[in-house]
Amino acid sequence: MSREQTIFHPFETGALDMPAGGCIVYGAERDFRAPDGFAPAVKLVQGFRPDYLALERRGLDVAPQPSGEGYATALVLAGRHRGQNEAWLADAIRRVCPGGLVVVAGGKTEGVASLRKRLEKLMPLGGHLSKNHGVVFWLARGSEAEAFTDATIADQQAAPLVDGRFEAASGMFSHDRIDAGSRLLAEAFSPKLTGVAADFCAGWGYLSIMLAERSSVSRIDLFEADHTSLEAARRNMARLAPSLEARFRWCDLTSEIPERVYDLVVMNPPFHHGRAADPGLGQAMIGTAAAALKPRGRLLMVANRGLPYEALLKSSFAACETIAEDKAFRVYSAIR
Questions:
Q1: Tell me: the pLDDT tens digits for 29-38?
Q2: Which of 39, 147, 161, 300 qualifies as a FRET site for 187, CA 20 to 30 Å off?
Q3: pLDDT at residue 311 greater than cutoff 70
Q4: Is the separation of the CB atoms in 191 and 215 below 8 Å?
């Protein structure tokens, strides 16, 4: 049962009336479809570039970040990150009109049931339903809900920095620690690395900042599919590496190919789509990196030891070698 089917269940069964005014939807995925007769205007929020592009191609009103106020209804399609769900819920409460409706749905294994139980202790809820493996509940914007929003925002602002330096948030890759693979890759950076660099799958900017501190690159372009992570990288770079020219690209590197302008590409590519392992993502990134590098340009890449990348690297580049490894990860250096 999809989250989308779950969140529309109370409207389709008559437990809730169809919205009469505008609606904002958090976490809408590429196949999102509202039922017939739903709200007259629906604003979708999707910061993951591949899903955003798919929704945009369908002609839907979609943006990477929420905007506007006074919505009659907000829908929150919750995922598996508690902090992100609470942040979306707090933002949704802030953007609906006083007394406006906020509906939250997600899988039972993704913490939505526990979120409902926590909220029941803080504010009155309008009701809840279950459908297959999903849970949906709803609430109205009132003083208790507004207090939850204020407390959630305060907690976000007081969240500790990763390693005492880096801003990150729930829902981002390695949001509470420096990823061990990225750290191993960064140890290979040195002043011998020069020219114009790109950080593929930049996340919140750790590798770019390490390049700024340890290499002699003259500029770096950060490519990231998650809009929220990219904005965190922008702030981290401005605060921690202000002297290095940086450009920020919200980009799906599996379908949007950068121009071939780089002397160096660094990356720690993803290998999961949702919870399922998908080595094809990293393989696509290798192809994109080869296409984006100048002749004799270098790729520095870290990957889990068991992933099937080495043969592709050797066939896509003029030379490839392992320059560092530990029990879990391997760092490759490949020359185009």
A1: 999 999 988 9
A2: 161
A3: yes
A4: yes
The span from the CA of 54 to the CA of 255, in Å, is 12
**Distance, CA of 175 to CA of 256 (rounded, Å):** 25
- Dihedral of CA atoms 217, 331, 199, 54 in degrees, nearest 10, equals 170
Q: Residue 252 is which amino acid?
A: D
Q: Answer yes or no: are the C-beta atoms of 41 and 74 closer than 8 Å.
A: no
Evaluate whether 285 touches 201 at the Cβ level (below 8 Å).
yes
Angle formed by the axes of helices 82-95 and 112-120, to 10°? 50
Per residue in 78-100, pLDDT (tens digit) is: 988 999 999 999 999 999 999 99
Amino acid found at 231:
E
Instruction: Name 277's bridge partners.
Output: 272
pLDDT at residue 271, rounded to an integer: 72
> Over the chain, what is the mean pLDDT?
93
Q: Which residues touch 255 (CB under 8 Å, ≥6 apart)?
A: 50, 53
More confident residue, 119 or 257: 119
What is the Cα–Cα distance from 154 to 225, expressed in whole angstroms?
27
Q: How far is CA 104 from the centre of its chain?
A: 19
β-strand 134-140 against 42-45: which pairing, if any?
unpaired
- Phi, psi angles (nearest 5°) of residue 335: -110, 130
Angle of CA points 312, 317, 322, to nearest 5°: 75
31 class by beta-carbon count within 10 Å (0-12 exposed, 13-18 middle, 19+ buried): exposed
Q: Which residue has the tokens 């100048």?
A: 294
Inform me whether the pLDDT recorded for 278 exceeds 60. yes
CA distance 1 to 168: 31
Residue 39: band (very low, low, confident or very high) from pLDDT cuts 50, 70, 90: confident
User: Residue 264 and residue 217: Cα distance in Å, rounded?
Assistant: 9
